[in-house]
Design goal:
Blueprint lengths: L26 H10 L12 H9 L10 H61 L5 H26 L1 H10 L3 H15 L2 H4 L5 H26 L62 H15 L2 H38 L3 H7 L11 H43 L10 H20 L2 H18 L13 H21 L7 H5 L15 H4 L13 H18 L11 H30 L20 H19 L4 H26 L8 H5 L9 H5 L3 H7 L3 H4 L6 H19 L17 H31 L10 H10 L20 H43 L13 H18 L4 H8 L2 H11 L9 H18 L5 H4 L2 H9 L5 H11 L5 H15 L6 H23 L1
Helix pairs in contact: 1-3, 4-6, 5-6, 6-8, 6-9, 8-9, 9-12, 10-12, 10-13, 12-13, 12-18, 13-19, 18-19, 19-20, 19-21, 20-21, 20-27, 21-29, 24-26, 27-28, 27-29, 27-30, 28-29, 29-30, 29-31, 29-32, 30-33, 32-35, 33-35, 36-38, 37-38
């Protein structure tokens, strides 16, 4: 029953609980409600039952006799409820009474025992106060027996130590094992234990266990540093196709709060006073950093941290080499199936590889192998270096703690990070060099270096040739044993090899693990053929890896000789850039000296509407690759720019040699003609004239050359006449009125086609170079663009005159940064390219005009115009000229756009008219049939010209036709026509046609004197008529 708040009244009755306290007895609720409704005064502490009884018996108006029956009813209900409650709970009441009796009995017994104990204590007190000497002896013997028992227990516990060590080491709880072992060793080495000779074997066992535990700790540490443990899989990541960054490791070292100290916010920073506690309930290997810290604490407990650090540093080169080889095997295994499937298509893929792109030298499959190797390897190396950094931090913490605890001034040496980075970068450098340089080349270089060293030194003697000396042999065996013991400490797995222990490998070759000599060190297995092109694949992962190292090791001095940046810088200077430069020179040689170097590129339609030579496309690919590489490896940019300048210079030389060989008078087109030329080499007249500065200056003003649509007609006419005058001047330099010979012309149509190809290719080449420079200017925001020089502006406008279809590669990542002196040098180079290209175009134009001069001079000087009968066919030389012009036009159409074709034929009718009129003095005799033949020649030429020039230009041929039509006028009519209409020709031209007219009239040889007189008459008449118009 609930008895929460009951109290006892002064009349001896326990008070009734509060109204809410009888909820445990539902039967009582109704009765209590009746009591509270009118009878609640009986529940008060000062209730007097006698007063109530008298009131109930009082029949007066102040009495309660009228409530007597109600009181009896409530009393009866209360009795019934109580009976029900007692009936339900009487068993519990009975048990409580029995329990109460038992508790009361126990209390009485305890009281009796306390009374008895008090009596015993009083007796002991009395006895202790008595003086008894035998008690001291008994106590002394008791202590000795206890010490003996403790000693035996300790010995027994120490004997069980090896078994406990096995259990702890099997569960990887090495800190507990080291603490247990060192405690046991400390015990057996105590003064008490040293007196027990029977423990000598146990001491040796514990010393052996210490060495074994030390070796085990080192192996476990190496397993987690070099990712040999299966629990280290989460410390590094395999390559994922398309990977561009090194993934972050999931497992991080534990960190400590150092407040606001920014320098201490390193993930490897630790408080020297914070000692890691080993959790015996978990597998420590699941967290490699935790496990390595536990191992270092165990080594500190063993007191062998310095030896362990020294061993770590000694084994680093061998372990790193092993890690590299293991990674190479893993990558090879991953790709062996893929290579099996792709071997069938390998030859086809090799054909499609652009060997002139440094970043596309290999097929995608081979590049994926290289990427897989480097990204996977660098992920592992990063994990290894993180582990070494973590061990270094833990060692500093341990050393500081031990130094303070022992008050020692001298502390053990801890390796610096550069001592770890040095052999790592050596292995990385060796691997990168393996894929950049072939083994034959490295062997050749090494052999040359060794030969030079051997020349400088002289062998004095050989130890193997010396006589055997027992004393020396004994000393040597001691050294040999020491060497083998140290080697077994470095590589414990080899301790079981009987061959090593027995010394049968004593005369084996020893490889210097620190040597940088590739032939002595040995190369890695190559998964891809070594080539300098591979740098495009090797570079990106290497730079990302070095950037990650700067993040992982922020406090490391990156500016010293062995810094991350200096490593790559040194690699670039001594390995990468020389290889690239050598490869670039090979590419220039390959691209420009092959039989098809100046043939049409296979897919030239991707770059231009008109053919481009292979060498131009190839070398643009080289330049763009160098720009992309410079963008990816943004240091030593001057070297890249210098190599690009070399490409431009070498290609210009080859193009000029090809041009010179093309315009050479020799009919052979062999390598000697292509590669050599000198001052005494004869070239075609067009090639010679195209290099004359005066004539070039006139040609450069041609409106069709400059795309000048607003040129004045009079200016164009004057320009054409000046060009004709200059051409005749060049023709007649060696001899007045010289006639051009056939060997001065280019009849080979392939040469004419090549000149057009070369012009368009050089123009495209210069345009692509400008696109690279334009890409840099558009992407550079560091400084304002420098204004282009006058030559650069002309070259840029000239090269961009034709719409650009596309480039060999997108220019987003290929940009050519040029400023200052380098920009000026490039402007000069591009100007020379422009000049050579213009020379090719000018040569085509001048070749057309030279053909015209040659044939028309032959028409005039060698033609027969004194005919007995009328001729209905043009002169054969006219027919040949028309055929040559058609062939040249076809050659130009296959190489150049329409505007260049118009430029080549522009002004040709004026030249024909000039030759036909000015050369008329070389006609020996002419009659009416001959004049008609000449007119027919002119009409044939005029009709053919409509295929090349606008009708407005071909109409000028009417001037020549009218000139020879004047032959039919006769002397008098011609003089009269001049007097009436004015002169249309010069005095000399009228004089020539009049001379032909009068010579035709004098058919008899005996009339020469009369003809002379007649000639004097018409000459005087012509002079008078012309004088009238001149005045």
């Amino acid at each position: 029953m609930h008895r929460g708040n009951t109290t006892k009244s002064r009349n001896g009755i326990y008070g009734v609980p509060a109204r809410d306290d009888y909820t445990d007895f539902p039967e009582l609720r109704g009765v209590m409600d009746d009591i509270y409704n009118g009878w609640d005064f009986i529940l008060k502490d000062n209730f007097d039952p006698v007063t109530l009884a008298l009131a109930l018996m009082d029949d007066s108006s102040v009495g309660k006799s009228r409530d007597y029956h109600e009181f009896q009813r409530i009393l009866h209900d209360l009795d019934d409820v109580l009976h029900v409650i007692v009936k339900d709970y009487y068993k519990g009441f009975n048990n409580s009474i029995g329990t109460f009796g038992g508790v009361l009995q126990n209390i009485n017994d305890s009281r009796d025992r306390v009374k008895h104990m008090k009596t015993d204590l009083e007796q002991c007190k009395r006895e202790l106060l008595e003086n008894r000497t035998d008690l001291v002896n008994i106590w002394s013997k008791t202590q000795q027996h206890k010490e003996m028992l403790n000693l035996l227990e300790s010995i027994e516990e120490i004997k069980n130590t090896p078994e406990k060590l096995v259990n702890l080491t099997n569960n990887k709880h090495v800190l507990h094992a080291a603490t247990l072992l060192m405690g046991a060793i400390k015990t057996v080495e105590s003064q008490e234990m040293k007196k027990i000779g029977a423990l000598d074997d146990l001491r040796l066992t514990l010393a052996s266990e210490k060495n074994s535990l030390y070796d085990l700790l080192l192996e476990e540490l190496h397993n987690h540093i070099y990712l040999k443990s299966p629990y280290c899989e989460n410390l590094w990541s395999d390559y994922v196709p398309g990977q561009q960054v090194l993934p972050e490791s999931i497992i991080k070292p534990r960190t400590f709060d150092h407040g606001n100290d920014a320098e201490m916010k390193d993930i490897f920073a630790m408080d020297e006073n914070d000692i890691l506690a080993e959790d015996i309930d978990k597998n420590p290997e699941t967290d490699s950093y935790y496990y390595m810290e536990i191992i270092l604490e165990a080594l500190a407990a063993l007191g062998q941290v310095p030896e362990a650090l020294e061993t770590l540093q000694e084994r680093l080169p061998l372990e790193m080499h092993s890690l590299f080889e293991k990674t190479i095997k893993q990558v090879e295994t991953r790709h062996v199936l893929q290579s099996g499937h792709s071997n069938a298509d390998q030859n086809k893929n090799d054909e499609d590889v652009d060997i002139y792109c440094l970043d596309k030298a290999n097929s995608d499959e081979r590049n994926e192998i290289l990427k897989d190797l480097l990204w996977t390897l660098f992920s592992k190396v990063e994990a290894v270096l993180r582990a070494y950094r973590f061990i270094e931090t833990c060692s500093h913490r341990t050393r500081s703690r031990l130094t303070k605890a022992n008050d020692e001034d001298e502390a053990f040496k801890i390796y610096h990070f550069h001592e770890i980075w040095r052999p790592v970068q050596t292995e990385i450098r060796a691997l990168l060099q393996d894929y950049l340089t072939s083994q034959e080349r490295r062997t050749q270089q090494t052999s040359m270096a060794m030969s030079n060293d051997l020349r400088k030194s002289t062998q004095l003697f050989r130890l193997t040739d010396a006589d055997e000396n027992k004393q020396i042999s004994a000393s040597y065996h001691d050294i040999q044993d020491t060497l083998y013991n140290n080697y077994r400490k470095m590589v414990p797995d080899l301790a079981s090899i009987g061959e090593l222990v027995s010394g049968s490998v004593m005369h084996s070759n020893i490889i210097d693990k620190y040597s940088t000599n590739m032939m002595l060190r040995g190369s890695y297995k190559l998964l891809v053929k070594p080539d300098a092109y591979n740098v495009s694949v090797l570079l990106k992962p290497t730079m990302v890896f070095l950037d990650r190292l700067r993040q992982v090791f922020p406090s490391y001095d990156d500016h010293n000789e062995e810094g991350f940046g200096n490593f790559l810088d040194d690699f670039a200077i001594h390995v990468f850039l020389p290889q690239i430069e050598e490869k670039v020179m090979q590419l220039i040689q390959t691209a420009t000296t092959g039989l098809d170097a100046f043939q049409d590129a296979r897919h030239y339609t991707n770059y231009s509407k008109y053919p481009i030579v292979k060498s131009a496309v190839a070398l643009i690919s080289v330049v763009q690759s160098l720009c992309r590489t410079m963008h990816a490896m943004p240091f030593h940019t001057d070297e890249y720019i210098r190599m690009i300048e070399v490409v431009l210079l070498k290609y210009y030389e080859k193009c000029y040699q090809r041009f010179y060989a093309t315009v050479s008078r020799t009919n052979s087109f062999n390598s000697t003609a292509r590669e050599q030329h000198g001052a005494d080499t004869n070239i075609s007249s067009s090639g010679d004239w195209a290099q004359d500065e005066s004539l070039v200056g006139l040609l450069a003003q041609n409106p069709f050359f400059n795309d000048d649509t607003k040129a004045d007609e009079e200016f164009v006419k004057a320009l054409n006449q000046a060009e004709i005058t200059m051409e005749f001047k060049l023709k007649n330099e060696s001899q007045p009125d010289r006639q051009i010979h056939a060997d001065e012309l280019i009849f080979d149509q392939s040469k004419l086609i090549f000149l057009g190809r070369l012009y368009h290719s050089l123009k495209w080449f210069v345009r692509e170079i400008w696109e690279l420079r334009k890409a840099h200017k558009s992407s550079s925001t560091a400084s304002p663009d420098e204004p282009d020089s006058y030559e650069a502006a002309i070259s840029k406008r000239w090269s961009h005159s034709v719409k650009r279809l596309s480039s060999t590669e997108p220019t987003e990542s290929a940009a050519l940064p040029l400023r200052g002196e380098s920009a000026r040098r490039f402007d000069t180079l591009l100007t020379t390219y422009q000049q050579l290209a213009e020379t090719c175009l000018f040569t085509l134009r001048l070749e057309i005009r030279c053909h015209t001069l040659y044939y028309l001079q032959m028409v005039v000087r060698e033609g027969n115009y004194f005919l007995e009968d009328e001729s209905y066919e043009p002169d054969p030389f006219v027919i040949s000229l028309n055929a040559d012009l058609m062939d040249i036009d076809d050659s130009i159409n296959t190489s150049l756009p329409r505007k260049d074709e118009v430029f080549c034929f522009d002004g040709l009718p004026a030249l024909m008219v000039h030759v036909l009129v000015s050369e008329a003095s070389f006609i020996k005799r002419m009659n009416r049939h001959g004049a008609q033949k000449m007119i027919r020649n002119i009409l044939a030429l005029q009709q053919n010209l409509t295929n090349f020039v606008p009708p407005s230009q071909s109409a000028i041929m009417e001037r020549a036709r009218r000139y020879y039509q004047m032959f039919n006028y006769g002397t008098d009519n011609l003089i009269k026509s001049i007097r009436d209409n004015g002169p249309s020709y010069t005095f000399d031209e009228y004089h020539v046609i009049l001379a032909l007219i009068n010579n035709a009239n004098n058919e008899e040889d005996n009339e020469n004197e009369e003809a002379t007189t007649s000639s004097s008459d018409w000459f005087m008449q012509l002079d008078e008529v012309m004088a009238e118009y001149e005045n």
